[in-house]
Structure formats: C-alpha cells, structure tokens
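Many introductory courses stop at the sequence. We go one step further.
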Amino acid sequence: MYIWCLHCECVYPSKDWRKKGQQYGFCPNCGASEFTDGWNWSKLVKYNGYPKIPEVGKHYPLYPESGEKF
C-alpha cells in the first residue's frame, strides 16, 4: 500500500511512513503526520487517473494541471 502526503504531494510505501508497530507515522520527505495529512494512494488514482503503482518520491499534485501526463 502507498500513502500520499497532502503537504509535499509525494508518495511513499506505508512501511516508509511507520516505525514497526505504529498505527500511524510521518512522511519520510517532509515529516507531516499520516493521521491528518496522509491519504491512501488508491483515492488519488481513482479521481486523478494516476498510475496504480506510483513512482516513489515523485511529486503528484492533488489538482494536476490540465494536459499534465503521469
């Protein structure tokens, strides 16, 4: 599973967000809280047409510019 960060708009595997045994963690890029700012990647795929398997660490904007390809 992948988690997308609302703050830096990058995506990382959930294991990179959490330390062993934690229910929630922090973005490995900017330190934002998963509980408040981490979104399940599948939601962005559904609404923005992003790839099911993202490029880890890549910037995926919440509202992509029209014509932007991923």
